[in-house]
Amino acid sequence: MNHLNRQTYALPDDLVAAVRASLRAWYESGNVHRLWARDATLWTGTDEGGWLGWLGIIEDRRESETYLRAIAEEVGPARFTHALLLGMGGSSLCPEVVAGTFGRQAGYPELYVLDSTDPAHVKGIEQRVDLADTLFIVSSKSGTTLEPNMFTQYFYDRVGQVVGADKAGSRFIAITDPDSTLQQLAERLGFRRVFHGLPSIGGRYSALSTFGLVPTAIMGVDALALLDRAAEMARACASCVPIEENPGVTLGTILGILAARGRDKVTIVASPDIRRFGAWLEQLLAESTGKTGRGLIPVDREALGPPDLYGADRLFVYLRMVSGPDRSQDAALDALERAGQPVVRISLTDPYDLGAELFRWEIATAVAGSILGVNPFDQPDVEASKVAARTLTAVYEQTGSLPPEAPFLQERGIALFSDQRNAAALTEAAGRDRSLVGYLRAHLNRLQSSNYFAILAYIEMNDAHEDVLGLLRHAVRDAKRTATCVGFGPRYLHSTGQTYKGGPNTGVFLQITCDDAIDLPVPGQRFSFGMVKAAQARGDFQVLTERHRRALRVHLGSDVEAGLATLHTAFQQALRR
C-alpha cells in the first residue's frame, strides 16, 4: 500500500507562483541536499548541524527494533495495569497522541501522561491509576527539567508507601540522554531500566526516537509499524526525489512562503480519530519557528466557521482520515477553498500513517525555518520563562512566600493584574468604565487586523474547563474575526510559549490563574506543586511583558468554576458593547 504523497494544496494564484519560485530556488541551490548533509548554513550557521539526528531514522531502525524487543521482555511479564509517563513538551506530547489515537490495547497497560504542575490535576491522575500496578516512565532528555523531577519525587514517595521503599524502583523506568542527571538518579534508586535518547535529537523532534517509541511499545501499539511508515516518508523526502514531488519540502515551502506574506496562522483541522495530533504539531511549529520576531502561530482545536469569519492571515491544514472523515469538516474546508482561503489537504489511510506525518512535519518545519531565517532547533524564550520561574521559586525557598503583588481591580471575586505599562494602557482605554467588563472590553479592543488572541490558563486541565475556555475563544473569534488559541499552563510553556514570546508581536494574551483549593507537597522540598505553578505563571507573565506583549492576568480565586462563569458572562457583555 502506498502511504505517501497524499498531499494536495489549493492556493491563490499569487501564492502558487511564490511557492513554485521558492522551490526552484531550493532546487538550483541544492538546498535539499544541504539539509540531508546537515549543513548549518541552511539556517543561521550556528549549531543547527548538531541537532539533526532525527534524519537518521532509516539507519537507526535495527537499533530501534532491538530496544523495542527489550521492552516487550521487560514489561510484558510484569503485567502492569497502567503506565504513567512523567514528562513535559517533546517528551510527553507524542505518547499522548498515540494513547489518544489508538486507545487501550488488550493485554497491555493503559497509558496516562502527566505534564502539569496543577495539584488538582496531579491528584486526579494519581486517583486514576493503581499505584502498585503502574509502570512509571520518567522522560527527560537532560534530567534537569523541573516538572519531571517533581513528578518523580512525588510518585516515587507514594509508590514506596504502597509497595515498600525497597520495591519502588522496580516500578520506574527512565528515558534520557546518556550520563544525564536522570540516569544517575535512576541508577541510585534502582529503576528497572534506562533507555537512552540520542543527544543530537532535540525534544520536539524526538517522537520517532526512544522518547516516542518506548511508551508506544509499552502501551502495546506496534511502534515498528509507525517507524516503517516514517521511513517511507523519509525516502520520499530524500534529496534525490524531484523537489516538486517531495512532500516534506513542498509543505515546508508553503508554510514558510505564506508566513512571510502574512499568512502565519496555521489552522490545524484533524479528523476526530486523530484530533490529538494537533497538540504535537502545535509544539513543533511554535517552538521551532517562533523567534526573532518571526514564526508560525499554530491554531489548534478552533472549531471551523463560515468563510466570512476569517481574514487574510490564515493557512488551513486538513489532516483527513479516509476511514473516518467528518463530513462537516469536508464541507467547511470546501467552502473556505471556494472563498479563496489557502488549504492544504493530507490524507491518512489508518492511524499508523501518523508515523509518516511525524516525519513529514519535521522536514517541513526545518524547511520553513530556513525560509524564515530562524534556527528551528533552539528555544531561547522558553529558557527565559524557566529562569524567571526558578528565580521566584528561589525567593519562596528563602522567605516562605512569593513576592507580594497588588491587583489594579477587584470585582465579583476576580482580580486583574498586569505590569505598569499594560495597566496604564488599559485604564486609559477603559475610560470611565473601570469595571471588569470595561477592562476586558479595553483589552479585547486591542486586537487589530491579523492579530491573534491567546488564553493561557493555569487551572486544572479537564474537559469542563476546556469547554468554557472554548466558549471564550470562539466568542472572540466570531466578534473580532481573529485567530484564537488556548493553552493550559505550565504545559504550553514547553510548546507555544516560545512563539508567544519570541515570534511576531501580534498576540493579545489573557492569562488565567487561581488559588488552588487543594495543594500537594513535593517530598524533600520546601515548595509545593501549587507554589511552583504560581511561580511559573508569574514568571511566564513577566517574560511576556518584558517582550512588550499586550497581556492581562485574570485571577479567579479558589472557586474556579464560579470564577469561569463570571468571566464568561463578563466576556459576553464586553463583546456586546
UniProtKB/TrEMBL annotation:
Biological process GO annotation list?
A: gluconeogenesis; glucose 6-phosphate metabolic process; glycolytic process
Q: In which pathway does it act?
A: Carbohydrate degradation; glycolysis; D-glyceraldehyde 3-phosphate and glycerone phosphate from D-glucose: step 2/4
Q: Which UniProt keywords apply?
A: Gluconeogenesis, Glycolysis, Isomerase, Transferase
> InterPro entries, from UniProt?
G6P_Isomerase, SIS_dom_sf
GO cellular component terms, A-Z: cytosol
The record's listing under PROSITE patterns reads: P_GLUCOSE_ISOMERASE_3
Under catalytic activity, the entry for this protein gives: alpha-D-glucose 6-phosphate = beta-D-fructose 6-phosphate
- One of its Pfam families is PGI
UniProt-recorded Gene Ontology molecular function terms: carbohydrate derivative binding; glucose-6-phosphate isomerase activity; monosaccharide binding; transferase activity
Q: What is its EC number?
A: 5.3.1.9
NCBIfam families documented for this protein: PRK09533.1
The family note in this entry says: Belongs to the GPI family.
The protein in question is named Glucose-6-phosphate isomerase
Query: What is the originating organism of this protein?
Result: Candidatus Methylomirabilis lanthanidiphila
Q: What is the lineage of its organism?
A: Bacteria, Candidatus Methylomirabilota, Candidatus Methylomirabilia, Candidatus Methylomirabilales, Candidatus Methylomirabilaceae
